[in-house]
Design a protein that fits this description.
Layout lengths: L5 E4 L3 H12 L4 E4 L11 E4 L4 E4 L4 E3 L3 H10 L3 E3 L3 E6 L2 E2 L9 H9 L7 H8 L6 H13 L10 H8 L7 E4 L4 H13 L3 E3 L4 E7 L2 E6 L4 E4 L1 E4 L3 H5 L9 E3 L3 H9 L1 E2 L2 E8 L7 H7 L6 E5 L6 E3 L8 E7 L1 H5 L5 H16 L3 H7 E8 L11 E2 L4 H9 L6 E3 L13 H20 L1
Parallel strand pairs: 1-2, 1-14, 2-10, 7-18, 11-15, 14-23
Antiparallel strand pairs: 3-4, 5-9, 6-9, 7-8, 11-12, 12-13, 16-22, 17-20, 17-21, 18-19, 19-20
Protein name: Tryptophan 2-monooxygenase
InterPro entries: Amino_oxidase (IPR002937), FAD/NAD-bd_sf (IPR036188), Flavin_monoamine_oxidase (IPR050281)
Organism: Mucilaginibacter lappiensis
């Protein structure tokens, strides 16, 4: 039967968390997932020949986050520390001054005195103009693009001020067996309680009225329920009719469409390079660059592909590249091979090696262009000016029939994380149960 109490569109962290909670409460749940796998922006790849897990999407638990770590402990899934040294490379040299952003205290003081929210780009141009602050402006904009994957011309000063003064991400963790093990746990709990998870079910149209909703997938099959949870990425909701991955509502949700339009959703490309050995730890590299990188976990640079990290403390030969924000969006249509060459050139510049030598030492590589994928269309959310108003609109149920959930609706400083998605999914399940009880 294609009928349920609740339809959930999307089998990422938020959707599966909601599905688990509602199925546990005795609701008949059907989850429709457009892709051929669960997980969404969590994408763990397993190599049976090496018995190694590789994260093509979300990789870290950014802090001692209660919902994520609580679920891992509940499921008996181990996690390990990913805290490590952060290294900066700029203008041909590794910096001895490891301060994250120059004039940090002054930056925070000026942000704290701000009375009206503006974009971080406008703020930096107004408050820190001139040659003296060149490096500071570059670092701030690079952080917003790289870590938040946002556009500095749109990113909220108020949100960044709150984020930068939070200690939530002081500890870093990796999930043993990959993040997907957590989602498999949620999916299993949903199925045990009668829930269904259907893959390759690309929802094209949603027809709704109070207390009744139908989803039509690409092959014309219709699924029906009393309520629906939209658990797709914000990038999919932003897609215009006719674009890949787009979902059309009948009737339209004009207020929600406007809110979605004004919320920030980033762009990112992740690059995985596996070499013959982790040469960045070698004595030859130390001699060549003039310093030891024996405890390096994260590397920030001004290269074309600016951000890199290792698998420290594991001595893995995988070196992961990352480019976010407008710079990643500009590369959306580039071929994987071209992005690879930019990556190798970036690594060659940093470690003073030849590109040809690096290419010879390269065993395997992957480019994951999340912005080009039709069922994600980007990375994760970031707060724009007035995002709180938009978030309130989307967090409000539509006639107790349509509900939205996802990391973009999280109110805390962990926005854009798996923690945010899990928390939002749990929250929407609580809201539905409360409505149905009343």
């Amino acid at each position: 039967m294609n009928t349920a109490d609740i339809l959930i569109i999307g089998a990422g962290a938020a959707g599966l968390m909601a599905a688990r909670e509602l199925a546990n409460a005795g609701k008949k749940v059907i989850v429709l997932e457009a892709d051929n796998r669960i997980g969404g922006r969590i994408y763990t790849q397993y190599d049976a020949s090496t018995r190694k897990y590789t994260e093509l999407g979300a990789e870290f638990v950014h802090g001692d986050l209660p919902v994520t770590l609580g679920l891992l402990n509940e499921a008996g899934i181990k996690y390990r520390s990913a805290s490590a040294e952060m290294v900066q490379y700029d203008q041909g040299a590794f910096l001895e001054d490891e301060s994250f952003i120059e004039h940090w205290d002054l930056l925070i003081d000026q942000l704290n005195s701000l009375q009206q929210d503006i974009s971080i780009d406008e703020f930096m141009s107004k408050e820190f103009s001139g040659y003296k602050y060149d490096r500071m402006r570059t670092s701030v904009r690079q952080f917003v693009s790289g870590y938040d994957t946002g556009d500095p011309k749109k990113a909220s000063c108020f949100a960044l001020r709150k984020e930068w003064q939070s200690d939530d991400d002081s500890a870093q963790h990796r999930v043993e067996g990959g993040y997907v093990s957590l989602l498999n746990y949620l999916a299993g709990a949903c199925k045990v309680n009668g829930g269904e998870i259907l893959l390759n079910a690309i929802v094209k149209d949603i027809y709704w009225e109070p207390g009744k909703v139908s989803a039509i997938i690409a092959d014309g099959t219709a699924y029906h329920a009393q309520q629906m949870i939209l658990a797709v990425p914000l990038g999919v909701l932003k897609a215009s009719e006719g674009q890949a991955g787009a979902i059309t509502f009948h009737p339209q949700l004009k207020a929600h469409r406007e809110a979605i339009k004004h919320m920030g959703f980033g762009a990112v490309i992740k690059i995985l390079l596996e070499f013959d050995e982790p040469f960045w730890y070698s004595e030859e590299t130390e001699i060549r660059i003039g310093r030891s990188l024996d405890h390096m976990g994260y590397l920030l640079s001004q290269e074309e592909i600016p951000t890199w990290w290792t698998q420290f403390p594991e001595r893995s030969s995988v070196f992961t590249g990352w480019i976010g924000g407008p710079e990643a969006r500009a590369k959306k249509e580039m071929s994987d091979e071209d992005i690879l060459m930019e990556s190798l050139q970036s690594v060659a510049n940093i470690f003073r090696l030849g590109v040809d030598e690096l290419r010879q030492r390269l065993k395997t590589w992957q480019v994951i262009n999340w912005t080009a994928k039709p069922f994600t269309r980007g990375s994760y959310a970031y707060d724009t000016v007035n995002a709180a108003v938009c978030r309130h609109t989307l967090n409000t149920p539509v006639d107790d029939t349509l509900f939205f959930t996802g990391e973009y609706l999280y109110e805390g400083t962990a926005m854009g994380t798996v923690e945010a998605a899990l928390t939002s999914g749990k929250g929407v399940a609580v809201a539905i149960r409360s409505i149905n009880i009343n």
